[in-house]
Write a structure and sequence with these properties.
Composed of 13 different subunits. Subunits NuoCD, E, F, and G constitute the peripheral sector of the complex. It is an enzyme of class 7 (translocase). Keywords: 4Fe-4S, Flavoprotein, FMN, Iron, Iron-sulfur, Metal-binding, NAD, Oxidoreductase, Quinone, Translocase. Pfam families: Complex1_51K, NADH_4Fe-4S. There is one protein chain. Helices cover 39% and strands 11% of the residues. It has a 5-stranded mixed beta sheet with strand order 1-7-6-9-8, with helices on one face. Strands 4-3-2-5 form a 4-stranded parallel beta sheet, sandwiched between helices. It folds into 3 domains: 225 residues, NADH-ubiquinone oxidoreductase 51kDa subunit (Rossmann fold, 3-Layer(aba) Sandwich); 87 residues, Ubiquitin-like (UB roll), CATH 3.10.20; 86 residues, de novo design (two linked rop proteins). It is globular, with a radius of gyration of 23 Å. The chain contains 16 helices and 9 strands. The C terminus is likely disordered.
Length: 451
Amino acid sequence: MSLTSFGPANRIKRSAETHPLTWRLRDDGEAVWLDEYQAKNGYAAARKAFADMAQDDIVQTVKDSGLKGRGGAGFPTGVKWGLMPKDESINIRYLLCNADEMEPNTWKDRMLMEQLPHLLIEGMLISARALKTYRGYIFLRGEYTTAAKHLNRAVEEAKAAGLLGKNILGSGFDFELFVHTGAGRYICGEETALINSLEGRRANPRSKPPFPAAVGVWGKPTCVNNVETLCNVPAIIADGVDWYKSLAREGSEDMGTKLMGFSGKVKNPGLWELPFGVTGRELFEDYAGGMRDGYKLKCWQPGGAGTGFLLPEHLDAQMYAGGIAKVGTRMGTGLAMAVDDSVNMVSLLRNMEEFFSRESCGFCTPCRDGLPWSVKLLRAIENGEGQAGDIETLLGLVGFLGPGKTFCAHAPGAVEPLGSAIKYFRHEFEAGIAPTSAVVPPLARPIVVGA
């Protein structure tokens, strides 16, 4: 994993003025611990928030900044904070950090937690102050063992310095923070499934409403935010709304910067903090260096395995939610994957759908039965044993598992890449249909789930 600066070849040094998330990173990749973090102006924003700002003013500042969730959904953070109850008699509230980063091709939160653990803690401290939450949890993907080690050490450092615990900074405000490692389930990225898992229940999504802001952890008001989202909060408080908005490129409707990356057979796979509104071409050519010698870009995903495929001609789209929507898919996590011309799309989709099928919680029928169905059809097509009508059946499943058809967003995200792959590379799917197969009406082919 690499992390470069705004300049394509490290010609421009990261700075606090342009890189609010990453300017404190060490060149050797080691973690920034408390003394170094404070020497780099760490916890100054928290001190400002505690000493000079009313709690409601913190919420309004974040709302005015235009900060949106960085986990993939892109919901406005200040609006989400505003849903927390105003009733002062409700004295038990929770703040949860969603660190269950299991989206394939995505590792941005891992970098922040491993190398800048105090940035996340400061973001959560300011957020807790704004939301009047007395306890916080970092719900961490179980496989992130280094992140867990570094976060636990950073929590202990903050406690010893009086930045967590009782009467923080002499304000009378108490906030405890705990690192909770999950059992490695993709569905826990959905906030209510995360809450169920934290409570010791099966990780099924909950019905909404009621939303977590009203009924969350153990029935109490709860706010859930992504790691990268919370890490943006200190800079917004320290340097202000106008500065934060100025970081984005002209034309972008999303504010600030974003951790973006490229994986696949590119010359320089990595992760970079870039302003919203850069084009996919800049990300692919200037930062990732284009394809390795001998390979050609066939297609790409803009933000994780749950986003639709795009063609090379779409690289000029701006990297923000609305810019990517114009070419037919979602920004997602902002970490792109390049697919080279040696890859068979049927095999790639079979592999993806196997993952999504395995990670389904099984709560609702379309997801529980539809995803294994897609896997079986894709496996048959991959082996040249597909039947006439199978492609139409797959497209039918894309529709039946789309937005609004399932209990949560797991299945819609799972079938989005499938629909786009058939749209752009249908001939590869058709090549797997056996020439002597009988015509089977769409969605009528018998299937044994799990076979």
